[in-house]
Amino acid sequence: MARARRGAVVGGGAEAAGTSGAAGEAEMAVERLRAAAGTGLRRPALPASVDAGADVGFSVQETVVGRVLLADGPGGSLVASTFVPDDAAVERVLRRLAERVSPRVVEAPARTAPVVDQLEQYLAGERQDFDVAVDLVLATPFQRAVLERLAGVGYGARTTYGALARDLGRASASRAVGAALGANPVCVVLPCHRVVASSGALTGYAGGLDAKRRLLALEDPG
Length: 222
Prior knowledge:
two-stranded parallel sheet, single chain, Arc Repressor Mutant, subunit A
């Protein structure tokens, strides 16, 4: 996996290996997480040796724009930066990671620490881009094509759903572009919040419109 700089997307996201029986393994992985949690999704701390043996390490962070789950995949690529307002949302993301990436998923804050640091700097106004490798393994081919266009929408800039659709050669696909952005598995790092309606109005966002307003205001304080 090559390295992405300034929030760029690397490749199209490798398909998870060994998909045969993956659904069953994913179900078992989620059940193990539930069992470890007892009630809710409170997981016990795991020793570093266990973290190192997992294919996916994740952490859940409370930020000024909402609760975010970050996940580091095989090879150290960021595979998820997803808003998770409640424990049910956390479980849904963990299930997708277990099904699409690997059933070996553990809570491993040390593995996500570098991107957490960058996210905190960005939200504090101390950083304008991200220096992380991104793997869009959780995205469909069309979603990848849309998300890759975000690399051209810099800090403080905005574009529209229609403009992205035209850039894809599908001028009538504004709604499909909006749906693809709404399912962005790597929010903030891949800045779908910079896409607005042709009128300039703010429309849907995975983290909610308040989060979208705050992110745009952060990038354009004047």
